[in-house]
Write a structure and sequence with these properties.
The chain is α+β, with helices and mostly antiparallel strands and 500 residues long. The chain has nine helices and 21 strands. It folds into two domains: 97 residues, Immunoglobulin-like (Sandwich), CATH 2.60.40; 294 residues, no CATH class. The N terminus and C terminus are likely disordered. InterPro entries: CarboxyPept-like_regulatory.
Length: 500
Amino acid sequence: MNKIILLTLSVWVISFSVSAQKISSRVVDKKTNQPIPYATIQIGENQGVVTNEEGSFSITLDEIQTQIDSIYISSMGYEKVGVSVQNITDSIIYIQPKAIELKSVFISNKNLDIDDIIDNVDDKMEDNYRSSLAKSRLFFRETNTNFIKKMDIEFKKSTIEEIDEKLVDSISRVIPKNSVFYAEALCDFYGDTDKQKLNVIKGARLYDKNNNGSIEGVFKKMEKIFKDNVKPNSYLKIRSGLFSQKVQVDSILKANQDAKDIADGIENPKENFFFKSRKMNLKNLFNETFYQSDTKLNVIKNSGRYDFERVDYTILDDVGVYVIKFTPKRRGDFKGTLYVNTEDFAVIRVDYKNVKRLRSFNLLGVSFEENGYSGTTIFQKGADGKYGVKFIEKVTENKFGVDRPLSIIEKNKFVKGRNKQNQLSLNLDIISYAKNKYEVIVFDAKNITEAEYNSSKENKNVQSTYLSKYNPDFWKGYNIIEPNTAIKQFKAIEEDIEEE
């Protein structure tokens, strides 16, 4: 949604349902009936949640450390409104936009030109944002959507009777053309930009195992063909165009088993993919905020690449905010909006979207395009006076292609006669698209000492729970980012799949 709409909304509609110790609601514009994303729902000092892209949120009161009787709702251009938890009698609560009352500091800063404002943002960045060691309790959701547009595997030659054109065609058919995967984790994240530790409290994977059922049959068939036809001590020479690589047969069989395990949802405790990917992605998300040194979103650090325009003023929690649009010059990559605190010149929210392809290559039939990079990041001031990440939503979109020959040759130097034993030759023409969405909400962040960081523990062997369909009770008792409609409606083709 265009964030400028937030300045013209005349009312919010919030539908509350209170059951036991949980509040569920949806924030909607009364005039347009459109949802309001990323509104802040405060439930205690430095505690709270953020509405999802559909304007929905839920709060588990049992998870709150202190007794509360009200929740507080705020967003750009609106009063911070308190709603009594115990006395909710109406399903609709009307909230009027806040008229901007120009404080003295707001008036004095009003006449700053745009270059002065951006210079102040840059000059005060080191003072405004937390860079010390910290511990953050957070919830992290990742959504991966994949679409194979083209899957042509042309059979050319095989010296193994069982590997024929019919088998190659069957492999091409069983690979799912469309798939979606959700991963969720409640974590404690320790560290800074240079070093990190992760403790996963609870995690889940939501996807359709049936997409992998027929693949498992291919794994078993290929493993039997390998064992029946490939000689001990052999190695495979895999060649594609000008490039070749040697691979031991034992490692192929091991990789085959690992691939089967992943398809089954079994994770190797020594190489826990769920843990490693959560830690890597969280590290990347925090290190790609606009004030980090190597960020792609270098709007402030490379401000000469952008044109800035102060388009409005607004209010957030009784604080004046500059609304600043940025658009790229010739070397800039993004367009979007900065919301800058008029008092301390901290960027408290940034919305961004790339305007051109960020990265691409095409070499010898292998191609990659980074076509999409967009999102919203919201920052919150802590008790230490420093700002830290409160909420992240980031979406990336990529295209991958392979159009080249592939040859697999079995060789064995211990067999008399010719070194070459078997050969399989194919032509590959594959195009696939991937869209990844990342959502993070930080519930609590506090500075820690070097000793506290060193004593913190990682649970690298933590196991996540496989879900074949959305289970509203899985996160009961925890505060999370409310799932969107697609997640709530997700279920595997067969509903009776056993959970791990």
